[in-house]
Each structure stands twice: as structure tokens, then as C-alpha cells.
Protein 1
Amino acid sequence: MSWNHRHLLDIQSLSAEDILTVLDTARAFKAVGERAIKKVPALRGKTVVNLFVEPSTRTRISFELAAQRLTADVINFSAEVSSLKKGETLKDTARNLEALNADIIVMRHSAAGAPHFLARFLKSSVVNAGDGAHEHPTQALLDLFTIRERKQTIAGLKVTILGDILYSRVARSNIWGLLKLGAQVTLCGPATLVPPVFRQLGCRVTYDLEEAIAEAEIINLLRIQHERQRQTMFPSIGEYTSLFGLTQGRLARTRPDVLIMHPGPINRGVEIDSEIADCGRSVILEQVTNGLAVRMAVLFLVNGGKGPQEIAA
Amino acid sequence: MSNATLLLSATGIQRTLARMAQEIAERNDNGTEVVLVGVQRGGIHLADRLSRMLADIWGHPVPNGRLDVNMHRDDLNRQMPPEVHATVIPFDVTGRAVVLVDDVLFSGRTTRAALDALNDFGRPKRVQLAVLVDRGLRELPITPDFVGKAITTRPDDHVEVRLKEDGGEDAVYLRHA
């Protein structure tokens, strides 16, 4: 048990023990979701603000439900309808939320480092729900939770992350988390989207799909982030699918116990064959269930992690 | 183990639990409605042992669950986040006589949280409290129904319950600060 953080900003700055603390805590919160009464009073009287400057549905809903199941009050704040559109700076928006005594601010932003910026001056806890192409820590934690639940341990596992690595915050957070817990990480995709510089982190990089998935125990598929690409990074969707899509034929040449993961939303027929998304080896919907438990654990932990000076009081 | 006094030896714990099981059986003449719920972490092994003893007395199995109260604590704002463990109650508590089992009763705040947590699993017919050691110094109006050993302590004393199930000896020590 180790947790002494007021914020969750990224996976890069967490220790392996921190990560395992979140996963262990999430296990208890997952059980809460399986009861008739799916609610505990752990955050009673606390206010959680979902500050989504970049639109998101699934992550926001997951955080919203997580906060509600902890009995916190939740406010959803999205950029399209907010004062940010009227010219208010992010800093002023955040200060206004703090003036309403928000205890935890969950933020998604298109700029990398935006949550770190808020954390520097806010007294509230800040949870990063995705910042640009930088990190998406709760997605990595829920992926690690799902892997550990299915495979018991993460150390030594062969994990292949397939697709758009360059623009993917999910990939970055997963890489940090998997490496810290001792997995062997292989990255694969079009050369334009999988820069060899990732080798410096300790990943294996290959552009040969068959080789990347042959021995993999986990295949984590990533969606092509059209919205983040400033130029076309590959000739066509059709070519991407034919070279890097996970088809039934390719799946037949993988290990029988391989787990197929995807952070969603999935594009059936692009990065994954429709049948594979629904097959027994796919844990895509388990990831959604586990995401709720992991976000409950994160909100619970950042709320308590006030640092030693407050514990003494 | 400086300043440590032995409160209960291994045989002392065994005899005390046997007596508590008898008392639970006396107070609950209908054994089929009794279920035991150990409070994480100190109560779970004691609930296991009491459940086996009661099964011998009544001649039928006595269901046994475990409850983690950390999501229901009243001091979550005042401390580091506590370690949360599994809550496993593989039976319906509605209409049953639930005996909550804990190792040490002190302020009563854990019991208060346990009652709240239990409430989410149904509506028991009644709830009783069994503790191996009652060290006094209650901060809430909570009284145990079954007590292994009652002692007087100072607030900064420490009562340490060691059980074989955790790897080691069966013993209860009182340590003075």
C-alpha cells in the first residue's frame, strides 16, 4: 500500500507500487458495482467537477458515475457551452470552479500538460482524463487492471500495442505502466505512426504485423486518431485495414490465450474485424466495467492523499 | 516487545473463543438464522473460528462473510487513504441474525462504519457484536454483546492480536506507549 499523491496527472511519475495500490483498491470498488446497492459514502459531501475542454462521452460518463457511486456531487462542464468560449482563460475557469469549493477537478484537454498546469496553482485535486497526445492515466490503469484480473500478473507478459502510437495518449500511458510493472512491450503500426524513438523507453518497435502478434499474450488495438492528425499519415483506411487491421485470418495465427483489448470507440471493419470485437478473447466491454472501478479508486485515493503535513494534524 | 504484557496466550484465545461460541449459541436459540460477518482485517479469522465452533455446537454449517468498512469510515478526510479489502457476503442478510466479529473494540467507530456497510446488503433481523478484546474508551454509544476479555487501557496503548492464520503465534499483547 503506497499512495501519497493529491493529483493523478500521469503514469510516468507513479511508482510500480503506486500503480499496484490503485489496482488493489479498484478490486474492492469493482465489488461495490456488483451489489444491489452500488453506492458507498466514501466521498460524501465532496464535489467533483468534470472539466471537459475537449469533448468526450465515455470517459466523462465513467467519471461521472464513479463520483456518484462514491456519493460525491458532480458537475459537468464542457467547453462548447462554457465561458471558455466567451474568452475566459483556462486558469480563470479553474479558479472559478475552485471558488465553488470543488474538491476534485477531472480534466480533459487537447493540450498536453494542461492538468499539470492546473495542479500547480489549484488547491483542489486534479485528475487527468486525457491531455492531448500526452497521457490518459486512468485508461492505462483500467487496462492494467483488466490484464491483471485475467492473467494474474503483468511482469514478463508480452504485450503488443497496435495502431496509431504517435498521436495516442492511451499508448503513452500504457507503455509507462506496462514497463513499470515489468511487461515486454512491442509497438506496431504504420511507420509514420510508430516512431522508432519509442525504443529509447524500452519498447520493441516492429512494422511487421504478423511478427508483432504471433507471440503476444495481449493485443491492445488503438483507434486511428483522425482528429489529432494534421496530415494524412497513411494512404487510405482501406490500406491501413489490409496491412494492420486485426482480421480473423490474422487472429488464427496468434496464441490461443491472447486477449484482445481496445480503449474504444471501436471502428468495426477498420482496426478490428467485427466478429473479433464480439469473440470470447475480446475483453473490450470488461475494460468499460473495470474503468468505472478504477476511476472510483482514483477519486478515493486522491481525496485521501493529502500529504504527510495534513495527516499529522 | 518492550513494555508488552501478555493478555491472552494461545490456549487462552482458544478457551475464550469456545466460551464466546457457547454464549452466541445460548443467545440465539434458532441457530439456522445466525450468520457471522468478520470485520476486515482483524475479525475475519476470528469469525472463521467461531463459525466452525458454532457448526459443531449446532450440527449444521454457519455461514461466514467478511466486511471491509473503509469506504464507510468517518475520518477519510483526516488521514492517508486506507487500504481497502474485499467485502464478501455470499448470503442474504435480510431476516438473519448477524453477529459482527472484530478483534479489538476501542472507539466504536469501526463498528459504526460496519453497521452502515452492512445496511447496504440487506436488513438483518438483528445485529450482535462479538469482540475478542474490549479495551474501553468508547467514543460512540456502542456496546458489545459478546466479549472475550475486557481490559482498561490508556488511549495511546496498543492492543496487538496475533493469529496463527497470519503466520505466527496465537497471542494478544498489550503494549504501553
Protein 2
Amino acid sequence: MTASKRWLPLTFKIALLTLLLLWTLIPIIWMVLSSFKPNTIITADTPQVFFTPTLEHYVSLFSSGNSLWPYLLNSLFIAGTSTLIAVVLGCMAGFGLSRIRIKGKQHLAFWIISTRMAPIAAVIVPLYLLFRYLYLLDTHAGLIVAYLSFNLPFAIWLMTAFFDDLPPDLEEAAMIDGATKFQAFRHVVLPLMTPGLVTTAILCFIFAWNDYAFAQTFSGPSTQTIPIAAAQLLTQTGIDWGKLLAIGTIVVCPMAIAGLLVKRWLVQGLTLGAVK
Amino acid sequence: MMSPALFLLALITLVPFFSIIWMSFNDVSLMGGLAFEFSGLDNWQRVFTDPDIRSSWLISLVYFLATVGLEMVIGTVMALLVYSLTRGSNIIISLLLIPMFIAPVIVGLLGRFMLDPSHGLYAWMLNESGLFDGNILGSVGSAMVAVILMDVWEWTPLVALIVLAGLTSVPEDVLEAAEMDGARYGQKLLYIILPSISNILLVALLIRAMDAIRFFAIIFITTNGGPADSTKIIPIRLYDIAFRFFDLGYAAAVGITMLVFSIMVATAFTKLLKRQEKAS
């Protein structure tokens, strides 16, 4: 242990950290725990810690008349497709942008970053009108396009940052050895970019999976995603907490695991390459 | 290689961009098919005179200062604590990061669940301890505090993660030298640690600033701007204008004022990136 790391009394440090951990984790633990409680325990006047766990909420989510399946499939399909398109196109554009030397490159960069930062509420208004005009409301394609409006600039920007870290010497050496530009890209550059590609894909998927505002506005009976299912149950009178908490658990757990899988590259991803 | 992506990006961003500008000069009606009626600067005049818009910007400002301020302070403390750990820091930061992967709708759901007046855990704790016994999300003041804290809960980890990355660049030898000279922790923090992470703190601030105006789902799902409009930040107001009153032309004008704000943040962000490039 280096001397510089020693500071503040240990007990104080532990107390503060414990407090922060409790603040962060209690709601999540309470949600997951309560999703296995029978409704009578969830709505008890005093919070209950001991109970006989039940899977009834999960079972009813996937078996009752208004099953969660269609919502889940819509979410997977829409988030998956928009991620795939964003990552493939973003990877190609990122490689190009990183290697090219042109005038006005910073204007191009500025355009890309400002589209990523555009407030969703402001983007929704013209998109709604255009989608209505093009008959894209309540279609999977409409939501995929909507998610591309933030995932595509994100993927281009982030992949550019990842390619910037990779010295061009490698592909240049391959090309000197007789590889075409595409071969050099495919066999030399791409394998080294796996962490960058996976990070970009996971973050794009999380952004699309977690979206509520676009889905609320553009989706219809046949295209609603899981966040919409949660919102619908939440606005009913007499909230069915058991079901809702089960949905919450289903929405949260895979994304938390996926996000933590790329923890090493997360800073770079979430600061759009500004911090490495 | 760049052309397919840039072409698609142009299509899905520039078309809406010019549409929203054109919409802001029109009275857009949805009844009986789309209809545009040119209305000159009417919408723009309303944007700058409407007291509802002004109060929404004010609430947004309070929300923005409170959330981003708390996130910066708590996030920095969180990062300093984790950085000072000699072991277990990996697992602890992983646990602390979880909230930022959670969909805002679910954060709102959790807020409603924890604060439910009849069986929420936090509501019960506040009630038992005698701190607060009203309907938290249903009362002016406490509702604002609650939605601010939900945002803080979700996004503080992001600030902590960014600051933690910055802390690895703090010059270790300078810290050690200061320690030999008998510097206390507060002095080291103020004169060595914070100055050497100032750029990182700025990155965190800008990232949070742009997202603060981007997302609105937490409020949407918990209070939807209420009670008595006390949590009606500008994106919620815009959504109301557009999709409750279907006044799309006016909503477009409000949307452009929001865009101006985010373009300013983006400008600051690219300037900062350039400065970093020169420094390295």
C-alpha cells in the first residue's frame, strides 16, 4: 500500500462507504426480494423481510391473457436490430473518420456529437410528424429508426475514439505485405477492435432497451416494448406491485450484468472517448 | 467507408432538424390529416412570453443545479473512497455502478414503490422516524426533492466512475512528497488531487449537463410534472404541449430552444476534447 493512499480514519471511511452502498443497493435488493413475495406480504402495513418465496408473479407474467412475451420480443428485436445497424455502420465510419485527414473534420465531429446530445423531447416532435406522414407509427422500423437517431452517432463517435487508439502502422504493415485495404481492415484491425465493438454494442443495446420516451410516443398495440408494459401497469388504479417488480427485475438484471461485463471500457464508452 | 453511416445519419437527423424549424413557423394541425398553416413568428412570440414556459425553465434550472451539483459532490466522494481502498475496490465499484444501467422507467417505478404512502419501505422509515408523514410524491416540495434524489441515485455512479478514472492520473510521487512534508489530507485534496483531475471533473459535468436535459422518463412516470406543476421541467412541458394539446408547431419552437442549450453543451465538450488532445 502506498503512503499516499492512507488518509482519513479507517472507521470513518468504512462507515461512509457502507452508507453509500446501502443507499445504492437497498432499492434494487428490495425490488428483487419483493418480486418473490406474495401480494399480501408486499402490501403489508409494515415491511416484511421474512416470507416464503413464490414465483407466482413471474408465472402470471408469462401465462396470463396479457402476457409479457410480445413486449419482450419487441424489445429484443427493436433494440437488437438498431444495435446491429449502429455498430456495423459505426465501425466502418469510425475507421474512416479516424484515418482520414480532411479539412473541416472538426465540423463533422461536432455535427455527430450534437446529434447524440440532442434532447429526446425535442427530437420526438418532428419525428412524430414524419413517422405519421410515412406511416411509420406503430411499426418496428419506426422505433429502430428512432433509436438509430441516438445510437448511430454514438457508435460512430465511440468507434472513432477506439480506432484513434490503434496505431495505423499495423494495417500499413499489412498493406505493404500485399494485403488490400479491406483485407488489412478485416484480418488485422478488426480482431484488435473486439473490446471496442463489444462495448459499443452493449451500450447501444442498453440505451435502446431502456428507452421509454420514444416507445411511449411511437409504438402502438403491436410494437410496445417492456418499459411500456411497466408504465401501463403503473398507471392503472390498484397497482399490481408483484407483477411490476417482476418486470422491473427482468428489465434490470440482464442490463446490469451486460454493463458490468465491459466495465473496463465503460468510462471510455460513457464519456464518448473523452476519458480513457 | 464512412459514406453509408454518414448518409443515414444525415437522413435521420437533418430531415427532422429542418422539419422542426419549419414546424416552429406553422400552426400544425393533426385533426383530419396533417395540415400546416403558416403563422410567422406566433409560436416564437409565445415561447418568450408564456409564463408557463418561463416557470418550467426555472424548475428545470433548479432540477439541473440540484441533480448535477449533488451528483458531482457525492460522485467525487464515492470515487475518492473507492480509490483509497487497498482491496475489494473492484467488487465495490461494480456494486455502486448498478443504478446507471437501470432503465429510467424502472428507476421511477422503484421510486414509486419505495415511497408508496401505504406500503413503501422508505415512506415507512420516514414515517416511523417522524421525519415526514405525508404523501411524498403527492406534495409540493417533497415531490421535487424525491425526483431529484431519484436522478441522483441513478447518475452519481457515472460521475464516480469518471472521477475514478481521473484519479489514476494523480501524480503519486507528488502526493508522497507532500506527505513527507506533513501535508494533511485536506491539503493534498485541495492542492494536488483536485487540480490534477479538474479536466475530468469538467468532462463529468458536461456529460451530466447534456443528459439532464435529454432524459425525462423518471419524472414522467412518477409525478408527470405534478403536483401543481411543481416538477414540470421543460421536457415534460414540451411533451404536454405536443401530445396532450397537440400544439405541435408551438412544441417545435420550445424544442428548438432546448436544442440551443444542448448545442452549447456540445460546443463546450468539443472544445474540451481539443484542449485535451493538445495537452497529450
